[in-house]
Design brief:
Layout: H1 8-14, E1 21-22, E2 26-27, E3 29-30, H2 41-51, H3 62-82, E4 88-92, H4 95-109, E5 115-119, H5 124-137, E6 140-144, H6 155-159, E7 166-172, H7 184-194, E8 199-203, H8 215-218, E9 222-225, E10 237-241, H9 243-246, H10 268-286, H11 294-318, E11 319-320, E12 323-324, E13 332-334, E14 346-351, H12 356-365, E15 368-369, E16 371-374, H13 380-383, E17 390-395, H14 402-416
Parallel strand pairs: 3-15, 5-6, 5-7, 7-8, 8-9
Antiparallel strand pairs: 1-2, 4-10, 9-10, 11-12, 13-14, 14-17, 16-17
Amino acid sequence: MIADTPGLMDEVRSRFSHVDACPFEGPRIFFENAGGALHLKKVAETSAFHASIPDNPGRVNGAGQRLQEIVDAGKADMRLFFNAAGGRVFVGESGTELLFRLVRTAALGAEAGGVMIGSTLEHPATASAMARWAGITGRAVIRVPHDDATGCVGVEAYRAHLTPEVRVATILHTSPVTGMAVDVGGVAAAIREVAPEALIVVDGIQHASHGAVDVAALGVDGYAVSPYKMFSRHGYGVAWASDRLTACAKDQLAGGPEDNWELGTRDAGAYATFSDVVAYLDWLGGRFDDSADRRVRLEAAGRAIKAHEAALTRALVGGTGNLPGLGGMAGVTLVGGDAVEGREGVVSFRLAGWASADLVEHLRQNGIRVHTRKADHYSGSVLRPLGMDDCVRLSICHYNTEAEVARFLSVMQALAG
């Protein structure tokens, strides 16, 4: 675990900008990582450099050729990150925009007729895309109900609704409201058993910063992430599409390469900053595994991150030192129960007698950054069945510390006591 390696946590935190202070509000603990993780200092440097370059990648000059090398290296790093031997990796406007494109391409490219299937746990990035393109293609959408008590959706829940008529399926890897991870590989395998030709698209946006991604093991056709939630910057998304999905007709320039997903000239800085993220994970993984294989080191980083965050989550829910956790505080209700196993980076809750917005403000005044989730188009499918109008979402990452958790719990104990 990161915290068990002497000096490593200090090294990790030193690589991130604004790790313990906001440039506008001063010192604070950052527990709003699901809204956007801290950015690597190297990403800021890389972004500034590329923002100053006027040349396009691929031009017959030194700058154009070097930029093309950076783009090619970025794509290689994206493949490594996804563990994708085949298919295509590409950059778009955002993770949400890419999920819309993946779903649209699947809906238009799949065999006519049939149905589309997702779950009520999903973010509107996939749920809205599915509803729109099901309507356009004349298909019904099956929404598999998630379990309100656990804040997750299981393989058997999907299996109960599967038929050979499924043409397109979506799976949320991890909920940004409950924090609970879905068994994507298990769900995908169940879909393949019943509807082997179905095209399967995964929303990996919440999961990507909390453990390794392995599309080869998952057996899916599309996977999208938002780099600003995984230590890079805003302004782009990254996706992978299988050869089968890539072969479907899609928006592209007439006469251009049929396997091309990207439209127009992309920012070489996006590829470069994604390479910065992969290089960071490579470095971190190298502290736990000295393999010469970069993918092995990335997987080691994923395991170390997961173990560290599990320890923080146990402290948040179960307590640390003489401080009770949220699971033992009077008046606190946890969204998705008090399970630590399967939870990735998020603990959402309510405190009796407090409006969530007021509690977020109280915590802000005490130097702790969290966020309100409302029963709106983003989170309503999870919160409304629980009878909640809103909740407080606390989201951690591997650069957070148990001391920061203890500070949060001490503020909460004073309110709940």
